[in-house]
Amino acid sequence: MIVKEFRQLRRDRGTLAMMIVLPLLLLVVFGYAAKFEVDEIPTVVVGDRAPDLAESLPAPFTIDDVDTSGDRADAERSLRDGDAPVAVVSDDDRVSLLLDGSELFTANAARTALASINDGALGTAPVDVEVLFNEDLATAPVMVPGLAGLILLFIGTVVTSLGVVRERQAGTLEQLAVMPFRPRDVFLGKVAPYFLVAAVDLVIVVVAGMVLFDVPFRGSILVFSAGAVLFLFLTLGLGVLISSVSESQGQAIQLAIMTLLPQVMLSGLIFPIDSMAAALQWFARVLPLTHFVQISRGVMLRDAPIGALWQPFAYLAGLGIIVMTLATLRFRRDLAPSPRRGADEPQRAGAA
Predict the structure, then answer these.
(1) Looking at the domain assignment, is residue 346 inside a domain?
(2) Global pTM?
(3) Are 253 and 220 in contact (CB under 8 A)?
(4) Cα distance between residue 89 and residue 266, in whole Å
(5) How buried is residue 351: exposed, middle or buried, by Cβ count under 10 Å (0-12/13-18/19+)?
């Protein structure tokens, strides 16, 4: 029995790969990404004393922009658009430090580093600190927008892949192949229910977060909905792709977990991306959930306009087109009549 189980496990390459790759993936993620400390804090400095303040800022503040003609409104706009999580504003003899509360860990790190500034690092009176967008630095306003993306990712990837694989195992796809439907119609008919369910779940999560945890929704519902639709179409296509290369629901679950886990851990939902190793930061910015988290937090917490979010929108749209095209082609191939079935039809007809 032991030898039989080993032989069976060796033939099940999906399970074997998951047993080996998943622990290594968890080790890498928790070893290099599971950090809440922020080593660098991107900062913009505005005002007539901006150059002197920029030179006086200690680590971990790193200067992204110095604008001597800017004012507080420009600094707030930089935080709203996501250009930087911290802004230093000089106005006569007053120095203000503006923090983006939607970047929870960065804001906390900036407040910790403020002690050295108040000890005279800037050569001024104590610095006034003001937190914008998440004034209490609460966890719920930061987590709920990301959890909305996680719901879409779970339904689009896991549930969709299981549903399509179940159809293949039951032989329903072969029946659909001989019906007067185009592959595109069958594809849309298969993913439409999951799209509607995911949309309802998204509304429930957002409304529940607003009611139960006082999560604000400051931005445009249309911008948020557009980002959610792009992200959901991408995840639905990914779910269909997973189902097309899976022979059973077990394999579909394995592949879905392999694509789901890195996005949960590396998207900035739990751990700040800036605290990760350089290679993981590059990988994190390739993941679709990373870009939807940027859109959802930007719209809900900061009222960011679509112009400030054009990069994540463009990425989701481009990747969604690629994934949906591949998923449609794979699904069309699954619906195509097999040569064996085509050869058997004349025989059955003759026998009749």
Answers:
(1) no
(2) 0.82
(3) no
(4) 32
(5) exposed
Q: Which domain holds residue 53?
A: 41-132
Q: Which two tokens stand for residue 160?
A: 């969709």
For residues 247-263, b (16+ Cβ closer than 10 Å) or e, as one string?
Answer: eebebbbbbbebbbebb
Instruction: Read off the pLDDT of residues 134-159 as tens digits, 9 standing for 90 and up.
Output: 888 898 899 999 889 988 898 888 88
Alpha carbon distance 79, 229 (integer Å) = 26
Residue 95 lies in a domain: yes
Strand, helix or coil for residue 87: strand
CB-based contact 133:100 (threshold 8 Å): yes
Residue 93 lies in a domain: yes
Number of CB atoms found within 10 A of residue 218's CB: 13
Which pLDDT tens digit goes with each residue over 256-313? Answer: 888 888 888 888 888 888 778 777 888 888 899 999 999 999 999 999 999 999 999 9
Sequence-distant (6+) residues with CB within 8 A of 244 are: 164, 327, 330, 331, 333, 334
Residue pair 114/95 in contact (Cβ under 8 Å)? The answer is: no
pLDDT above 70 covers a percentage of the chain that reads 81
If asked whether residues 171 and 273 sit together in one domain, one would say: yes
pLDDT of residue 264: 86
Q: Which residues contact 323 (CB under 8 A, 6 or more apart)?
A: 234, 237, 238, 241
- Say if 84 falls within a structural domain: yes
**Same domain, yes or no, for 125 and 163?**
no
Kindly report the number of other CB atoms within 10 A of residue 328's CB atom. Answer: 17
Question: What CA–CA distance (Å, rounded) separates 146 from 250?
Answer: 27
Q: Last residue of some domain: 132, 159, 180?
A: 132
Determine the residue type at 332.
Answer: R
Q: Which residues of 167-194 are buried (b: 16+ CB within 10 A; e: fewer)?
A: bbeeeebeebbeeeeebeebbeebbeeb
Q: What is the mean pLDDT of residues 196-206?
A: 90
Reference 263, options 156, 184, 179; nearest CA is 156
- Which residue, 264, 268, 259, is CA-closest to 239? 259
